[in-house]
Amino acid sequence: SPTGPGLTDPERLESAIRQLVQEANAEVGDRYFPALVRSLGGILGLDWTFIGEFQRDCQRIEVKALWADGQFARPFDYSLEGTPCETVVGRRSCAYPSGVAERFPQDVVLAKRGFDAYVGVPLWSTKNEPLGLLVGLKRSPLTTPSLVQSLFELFAARTAAEIERVGSLEALERSYGETLAGLVDALELRDQETSGHSLRVVRHAVQLAEALGLDEAEQQAVRWGSVLHDVGKIAVPDAILRKPGRLTEEEMEAIRRHPEAGYQLLRSVNFLRPALDLVRHHHERWDGGGYPDG
């Protein structure tokens, strides 16, 4: 594939732009960010490339995706103060072809990592508010800084749109999740015998997930599955759920249907799909008993 040093050749430049557009446009949402930084870093011959989201309340940048020295690295957050990014966010594109560490001595990462060149392009929201930035770093001087800056600017609007889209989706998911959690609380008010049960399940399940070394996405699935595991009880009549005495076999059968009812209720909610098995199978047993499949 074309690399940074050869991009002054018109044919290689055209090929590079085509490759960048194809690779970046192949992904959407959270998958777009790593795809873009990998493509920009590899094709332009940059040592580090990252997308950062501006946290206005604390004047910090939260890195959403980082391509560092030929591989993905763990994202981090940092203060804007004293960094070249401070000259970019909410302002304008900046390129420092060489000597960036000397120009910004307060930014210890630049000197520690040996960076010499910097390119940063601001990202703006649809309300024309500062949203973040797209950054490239190199340990040797940039021979074509204006070209690299122009290519970064080519992807700025799409990157900003994806950040806003993901943020809106996350807010929607949180709102929907809180609504469902509120529904579970209401269900527990119907069933006085299990008041506080879901919170206890969440606490123990998350502790177990952490002990097992599950990653953050898996832990989040465990968290949602625990919160919502009994949501299917909405289909169980009050007369059964609150019955003080022993249940008949027919009434027990109604209780046994609640995991499947919860699964059916949640299956159309995309972000809850990783948690669906927990909802449907939380009454199964290690010996193959339990329900609904035991």
Notes on the protein architecture:
The structure is a single chain. With 294 residues, the chain is of the alpha+beta class. The chain is built from 11 helices and 7 strands. Strands 1, 2, 3, 4, 5, 6 and 7 form a 7-stranded antiparallel β-sheet that branches. A hairpin with a 4-residue loop joins strand 1 and strand 2. It is elongated. 32% of the residues are buried.
**H and E order:** HHEEEEEHHEEHHHHHHH
Low-pLDDT segments: none
Helix percentage range: 40-55%
Proportion of β residues? 5-15%
Shape: elongated
Mean pLDDT: 85
List the helices and strands and how they pair.
Elements: H1 10-25, H2 32-44, E1 48-55, E2 60-68, E3 71-72, E4 77-79, E5 94-96, H3 100-103, H4 108-113, E6 117-124, E7 130-138, H5 145-190, H6 197-211, H7 216-227, H8 238-241, H9 249-256, H10 258-266, H11 276-281
Antiparallel strand pairs: 1-2, 1-7, 2-3, 2-4, 5-6, 6-7
Helix pairs in contact: 1-2, 2-5, 6-7
